[in-house]
């Protein structure tokens, strides 16, 4: 990670600097190339003019004497020069007297410069010379100049890159690497390394930053030590307080569970109360309707319960209620629920039970009640029940309808003389 970080930072600096150098040298190179090109062209023009003037002076005597042999010989030697493409010698009237073309000259493809000079004799024009010179030397010189400029840029860029890479590594990247390494050490081992010093000898902004970092690191270490001391002092007190909180929390949870249980339980019979029964009925009724399962509801009243209270006292009445609660609870399944709705009224919900099953269960319960000995304070009490039964049907399609149907069956059982069970609908 350290090497990647260092190379990345140095690499960025090198790329930025070298990019600037390349752009700058490219502009300078183009400018130098244009200057060299112009200089070479001017030199070729000057040289060409001098040559054509000298050639014109050489032909002055020959053209006056009509010395064709020497003119042709001289033209032949001039045409054989490397950069000469063509030479034409004309008389005063403009008629070509001698013309020679280089063997390599192709007018359609060759690039050339044309130079002209008047041939004078005795101060009077006697003819003219036209000299075509090849541009190959110009192109070769420009190409060499361009190559040299590029090589200079490449070598200089490489040299600067290496120099910047080395200098930035020592002056900038290495101190920053020390910063990073120490910070990682502190991050991974804060308790052991937060007091370490960052040693950087730079006398610049990085050195100032190291001094600031060391100062901050010392302060952080002092704060950590103070916090550690305070933590050690408070640790025992916190442990004791935490234990007390655990005890109080357990007591509160226990009390909360008791309150919740009391909210849904009848305190006398320990059976679910009406609130719990209604909640269970709502859930079970919805599930039975959704899955088209049978559900029966039973309402039970103690026959002549007021007479028991009036004759034998409320203690006897409470005894009867408790005994009945025990009997009801012992006869239902885990999926059923038996609740005391209030006073002497009880309700039982038989889930997934058909109306005949509910009737058989009720008849069995009536027989058990008749055979059970209800004895309180040496007094034998006679206890019977009136029972109403109803199930979910097309008519009893709601909880209210089911309640009403079961309640009507209960009152029908009382009307028929009590101590019996009646199914709704009844005849």
Could you please describe the fold and organization of this structure?
This protein is of the alpha+beta class and 427 residues long. The chain is built from ten helices and eleven strands. A hairpin with a 4-residue loop joins strand 1 and strand 2 (96-101). The two termini are 93 Å apart. Mean pLDDT is 83; it is low at 1-6. The protein has helices at residues 2-64, 68-79, 136-188, 190-193, 205-264, 274-291, 305-312, 314-331, 355-371, 399-415; strands at 84-91, 96-101, 112-121, 124-134, 295-302, 337-342, 345-351, 374-376, 379-381, 385-391, 420-423. The strands form three sheets. Strands 6-7-5-10-11 form a five-stranded mixed beta sheet, sandwiched between helices. Strands 2-1-4-3 form a four-stranded antiparallel beta sheet. The protein has a two-stranded antiparallel sheet with strand order 8-9. The longest helix is centred in the first third of the chain and has 63 residues, at 2-64. It folds into three domains: 2-102 and 109-142, Beta-Lactamase; 189-264, no CATH class; 274-423, Reverse transcriptase/Diguanylate cyclase domain (Alpha-Beta Plaits, 2-Layer Sandwich), CATH 3.30.70.270.
């Amino acid at each position: 990670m350290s090497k990647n970080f260092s190379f990345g930072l140095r690499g960025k600096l090198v790329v930025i600097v070298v990019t600037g150098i390349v752009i700058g040298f490219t502009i300078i190179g183009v400018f130098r190339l244009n200057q060299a090109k112009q200089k070479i062209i001017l030199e070729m023009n000057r040289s060409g003019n001098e040559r054509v003037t000298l050639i014109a002076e050489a032909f002055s005597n020959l053209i006056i004497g009509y010395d064709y042999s020497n003119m042709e010989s001289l033209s032949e030697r001039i045409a054989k020069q490397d950069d000469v493409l063509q030479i034409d010698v004309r008389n005063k009237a403009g008629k070509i007297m001698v013309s020679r073309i280089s063997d390599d000259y192709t007018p359609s493809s060759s690039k050339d410069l044309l130079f002209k000079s008047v041939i004078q004799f005795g101060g009077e024009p006697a003819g003219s010379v036209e000299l075509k010179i090849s541009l190959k030397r110009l192109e070769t010189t420009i190409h060499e100049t361009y190559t040299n400029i590029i090589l200079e840029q490449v070598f200089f860029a490489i040299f600067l890159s290496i120099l910047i890479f080395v200098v930035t590594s020592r002056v900038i990247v290495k101190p920053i690497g020390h910063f990073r390494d120490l910070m990682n050490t502190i991050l991974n081992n804060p308790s052991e390394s937060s007091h370490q010093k960052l040693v950087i000898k730079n006398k610049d902004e990085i050195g100032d930053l190291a001094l600031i970092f060391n100062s901050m690191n010392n302060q952080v270490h002092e704060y950590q030590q103070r916090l550690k001391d305070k933590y050690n002092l408070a640790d025992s007190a916190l442990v004791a307080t935490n234990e007390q909180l655990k005890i109080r929390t357990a007591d509160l949870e226990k009390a909360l569970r008791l309150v919740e249980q009391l909210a849904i339980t009848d305190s006398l019979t320990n059976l679910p109360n009406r609130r719990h029964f209604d909640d269970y009925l709502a859930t079970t009724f919805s599930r039975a309707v959704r899955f088209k399962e049978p559900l029966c509801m039973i309402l039970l009243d103690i026959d002549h319960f007021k007479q028991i209270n009036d004759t034998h006292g409320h203690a006897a009445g409470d005894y009867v209620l408790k005994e009945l609660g025990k009997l009801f609870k012992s006869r239902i399944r885990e999926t059923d629920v038996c609740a005391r709705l209030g006073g002497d009224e009880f309700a039982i919900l038989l889930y997934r039970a058909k109306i005949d099953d509910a009737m058989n269960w009720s008849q069995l319960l009536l027989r058990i009640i008749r055979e059970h000995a209800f004895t309180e304070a040496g007094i034998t009490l006679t206890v019977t029940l009136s029972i109403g039964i109803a199930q979910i049907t097309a008519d009893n399609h709601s909880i209210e309808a089911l309640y009403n149907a079961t309640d009507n069956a209960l009152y029908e059982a009382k009307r028929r003389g009590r101590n019996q069970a009646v199914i709704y609908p009844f005849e």
